[in-house]
User: Which sequence fits this backbone?
């Protein structure tokens, strides 16, 4: 008996959590999935560390409704993203587009990796050369401190 | 010798970089988004007047002279803070001040103006916040400077201050005449 009350209470709590995000009249599951995926890729402009899908800020709700209407008007995901960046800037995209100003953002980590690999390669080559050299003249290895 | 100094140099370079980052974030509020609409035409709109809800104001109605579009709502505490200064700007008369009543109940808005004063040359009402999305508004207060040709020249997020007005708005009003 008390278990049933507990379960009911739990369900009511869950219902509250779901209702925090305003319901939209989706036609079918495909539309809803598309909406979920699209809003998860867009940043809430007010709260900034939440996606549009998670945020219950007022502006996020307004933008969700706007996106829903744009979907109904037949806009593609790319068109909707362009529409939002024209108004709120690149910032709204969690995956920024590739252009001159985002080049470092996209390829910076790879460049650092390549640079690191280069340094490692050179260091190993030098060490190998030095070891070969000290093998040849065993006994006079004067600068072992350099050898880290 | 150089090889031994290299880690130290790398450390100093990194420290300088991070220090510069900290200094930059002190002068610039990271929560303020730059507007994507600067130097682009103000969006089209047709919104009712707060005082005459049966009359609509459109983008073209406001052309001819620069204006400040002040986004506010009776629900917004920071709007109350900037309000005396908005009144001062309107009194000085260097630029028209148009109110943009954002997601507000008209009755609340009217009461708020009665209590704190109504400096606006005109007030347009965006009841459901749809038009605000066209402007890239994400909160209140925000203030746009639109020139005589209807081009957005500047946007300030947060309460308008004498400092911002003197340094960011006034020079651009001179330029937009």
Assistant:
């Amino acid at each position: 008996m008390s278990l049933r009350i507990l379960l009911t209470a739990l369900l009511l709590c869950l219902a509250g959590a779901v209702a925090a995000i305003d319901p939209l009249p989706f036609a079918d599951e495909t539309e809803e999935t598309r909406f979920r995926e699209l809003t998860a890729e867009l940043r809430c402009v007010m709260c900034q560390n939440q996606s549009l899908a998670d945020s219950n800020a007022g502006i996020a709700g307004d933008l969700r409704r706007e996106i829903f209407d744009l979907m109904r008007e037949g806009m593609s995901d790319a068109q909707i993203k362009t529409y939002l960046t024209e108004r709120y800037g690149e910032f709204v995209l969690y995956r920024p587009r590739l252009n001159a100003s985002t080049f470092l953002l996209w390829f910076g980590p790879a460049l650092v990796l390549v640079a690191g690999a280069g340094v490692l390669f050179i260091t190993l080559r030098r060490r190998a050369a030095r070891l070969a050299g000290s093998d040849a003249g065993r006994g006079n290895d004067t600068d072992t401190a350099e050898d880290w | 010798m150089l090889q031994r100094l290299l880690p130290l140099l790398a450390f100093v370079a990194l420290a300088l970089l991070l220090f510069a980052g900290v200094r930059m974030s002190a002068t610039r509020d990271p929560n303020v988004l730059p507007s994507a609409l600067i130097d682009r035409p103000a969006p089209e709109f047709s919104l009712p007047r707060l005082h005459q809800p049966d009359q609509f104001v459109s983008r073209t109605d406001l052309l001819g002279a620069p204006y400040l579009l002040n986004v506010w709502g009776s629900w917004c505490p920071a709007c109350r803070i900037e309000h005396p200064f908005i009144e001062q700007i309107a009194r000085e008369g260097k630029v028209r001040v148009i109110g943009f009543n954002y997601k507000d109940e008209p009755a609340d808005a009217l009461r708020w103006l009665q209590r704190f004063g109504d400096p606006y040359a005109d007030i347009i009402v965006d009841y459901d916040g749809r038009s605000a999305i066209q402007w890239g508004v994400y909160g209140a207060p925000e203030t746009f400077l639109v020139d005589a040709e209807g081009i957005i020249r500047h946007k300030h997020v947060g309460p308008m201050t004498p400092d911002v007005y003197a340094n960011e708005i006034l020079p651009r009003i001179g330029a937009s005449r």
Remarks:
- Chain B touches chain A at residues 3-4, 31, 33-37, 103, 128-130, 132-139 (CB under 8 Å).
